[in-house]
Amino acid sequence: MLLKLDHPKLFSEIIGIISDLVLEVRIKVNKEGVSIIAIDPANVAMVCFKLPVAAFSEFRIENDEILGVSLESLKSVLRRCSAGSVLVMRRIENELKIEITDRIKREFNLALIEIDDEEKPIPNLEFASRIEMSSVDFAEAIEDCAVVADSCSFVSEPDKFIIQGKGSLNSFRSEFSSDELNIQAQKASSKYSLEYLQKIIKAAKITDKTIINFSTDYPLRLDFNTPFVELSFILAPRVESED
After folding, report:
1. What is the value of pTM for the model shown?
2. pLDDT tens digit string along 85-120?
3. What DSSP element (H or E) covers 65?
4. Host H or E run for residue 195
5. Which segments of the chain belong to CATH 3.70.10.10?
């Protein structure tokens, strides 16, 4: 196995984002590219990541590979990539050999680990509402909610999308219209954890647009896609008897 990325900074950033939710993952390598599907230890959030073959300047495998890795260790190595670095990853027996080349060539060897948990399938979800909006605006609204509350509600109508949060004393509300966003929505409302959303919105920096899918008291799916990357998160709703 040999995987070469001429511009590894984006890959490094995504691994860093995923590592905020998951400690260990199986990285799948097959003829389609590299992918990760993982669930956080509390079974609240799922992450789905795909990096296709086209993103690599060199991609050689003899058989499909499953690489069990500590994301903290991998993140620490990938942080050593700079803007002009070239990244090469090889599997050598039970180690992942990582070469970073810029002015000099550096080599890291990470021990591959056994991960006992079976990979969960991506759930087949049908949503009442789909919102496409600026990643910057979405991230700002989530951070605004976090100032006053520990959860936020998404509310949709055919021509309107609202993000709001309510604490014991204070509240926040941000309303967007179909003039500003691409809204394909029915009337729906659902509440989600801001602790998780604040980790997830770090992915807003990789793309200009965020796609939001949800229904009433139903999982949320957030898509942060680029021409070379598919990155999605599924977050369980917070269902409470009282506000």
Report:
1. 0.94
2. 999 999 999 999 999 999 899 999 999 999 876 778
3. strand 65-70
4. helix 194-200
5. 2-111
**Residue 81 and residue 14: Cα distance in Å, rounded?**
13
What is the amino acid identity at position 59?
F
Which residues of the chain does CATH 3.10.150.10 include?
129-206
Non-local CB neighbours of 109 within 8 Å, separated by 6+ positions: 92, 95, 96, 97, 98
181 neighbors 130 (Cβ within 8 angstroms): no
What are the tens digits of pLDDT across the range 137-146? 999 999 999 9
Tell me the C-alpha distance between 238 and 154, whole Å: 11
- What is the structure's pLDDT at 116? 76
The superfamily in CATH containing domain 129-206 is DNA Polymerase III, subunit A, domain 2 (3.10.150.10)
Q: Please list the alpha-helical segments (H only) found in 82-175.
A: 135-148
CATH hierarchy code of domain 2-111: 3.70.10.10
d(CA 111, CA 53): 24
Helix H or strand E encompassing 49 = strand 45-52
**pLDDT under 70 in the chain at which residues?**
117, 240-243
Please give the Cα distance from 202 to 211 (Å, whole number): 14
